[in-house]
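S1.2 Input.
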Amino acid sequence: MTNTQPTMTQPTVRTCPFDPPEEYGALREQAPVTQVTFPDGVTGWLVTRYEDVRTVLSDPRFSAKRTLLRTGGPAVNDAPVPPTPPGMFILMDAPEHTRFRRLLTGQFTVRRMRQLAPAVEKIVAEQLEAMASAEGPVDLVQAFALPVPSLVICELLGVPYADREEFQRNSATFLRLDSSPEEFQQAQAAIRGFIHQLAVAKRENPTDDILSELAHSGELTDEELAGVGMLLLIAGHETTANMIALGTMCLLQNPEQLAALRADASLMDGVVEELLRYLTIIQFGLRRTALEDVELHGHQIKEGSLVVASLASGNRDAAHFTDDPERLDVGRPHSPHLAFGHGIHQCLGQQLARVEMKAALSALLDRFPTLRLAVPVEQVPMRDNMLVYGVHELPVTW
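S1.3 Output.
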């Protein structure tokens, strides 16, 4: 077994907007479990192969409880980690995590999300109608990709869509790597305060939505409900919005693949899975902490060590995706990917994301058969500085 000091920093620089940093390929081949220094100065282990990523995310010896939500920031190895905010169950282990997850699982079943599809399609159609009436190039993010999941999650949670600008702005600050500690705390407090106020009101005047159901379950305090609501609100619009925009950009830059999709609309379910795999927008991986000494690939990972499981690298692992995983293939046979994570923390809203992506991409490509970028691809501003990757804006025309 080996235990060496880190000789590199976590790769973060992309040479192609759709690919993870090139160094990940060499790491998978030569050093799939290696010590690195992360962008925030913390040292730990980076895991890059598909099977090892699954192991880290499913083995209870690797804890989500003491991880940091952010990749950037002022943290150092010996700095005390603040307590987990109430309701922030992605930073909890069983049984605390189980209690929250159990309350929410029934809200996001495959059956329930499929039943939601007509409502999603109606929202998509309305946004496309408004987009079609615009003159000249439009920003697909603001005109379509962001409003669709925002409207859906607001409807599900019972959050007034009129408040979208405030929570979208605070969500972006919360996910930026270059936010100062003060900005980060202020954004977090603002979103929690907003949801807390809403939750208190729903205890007195419930409506037909998830927050009302949780409020009247009798199992959550107001603080816990605010944390759960904040988590669902941020994850419910940031991730899918960026997958819709980045997925559109990716298809436009792969005309042969786009042509194959246009020729056979039945490919769309597979296209959604392939885009999720190929783009993997949780770009810096998921953090875990070793609860005891663990041997992984001949390396002794000491108790208390930080371990980052790279979803983006695992989703390009040729040992699992055997037919050239570095290539976008809209006809690729289905094979389980890691875009939604793995284990007990696998994304609760993954079925909703699939419904939204399928509805959005299908209708967008059908409504605008000549859709194209309005600027050279090099001029599209990418979200390199965000925990959730994507584009800040996407000028398109037709």
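S1.4 Remarks. Residues 67-78 have pLDDT under 50 and may be disordered.
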